[in-house]
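Sequence and structure are kept together here, with a separate record for every protein. A complete record is shown below as an example:
=====
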Amino acid sequence: MNELLPKPDLTKIAPLKLTKKQLKYVMSYYDPNSETFGNGYESGRAAGFAKVYSAQLASPARNVQWVMEARKRMTHYSPDHIYQALQDVAQNAAPREKLKALELMGKAKGMFIDRSQQDVHVTFTNDVPRPSTESIIDVEPTNA
């Protein structure tokens, strides 16, 4: 894991009055340096919760009140968090998802330049007035 990534801002969840296990779950889930970053089940197990309860924590269909509140407060992901999640997908997902994750990571690092072909038609009009033949002065060289 990349140790340079910032840890989650705990001031966002301070008003929730979480237990030690709940706080450990939130830290494990939202810390990009954690081995269980983004994995609800594994974060629950790392926090000391039972397998069944960890599965409930990982399920978005379950309405675990403190998890929903923490999620609301913590889901403002930084670019580092998003990049770390893309790295995880690139390493652990199916080939199609890996390719898309690698593409997005490359774009984030400026490795690709989006180029599009544009057809441009330019018409030049010569509107410079030409002198009339009357105003042309014929100059003959003089031999001195």
Notes: The helical segments are 20-30, 40-47, 51-58, 65-74, 79-92, 95-108. Residues 112 and 123 are 33 Å apart (CA to CA). The chain has a mean pLDDT of 77. The chain is about 45% helix and 0% strand.
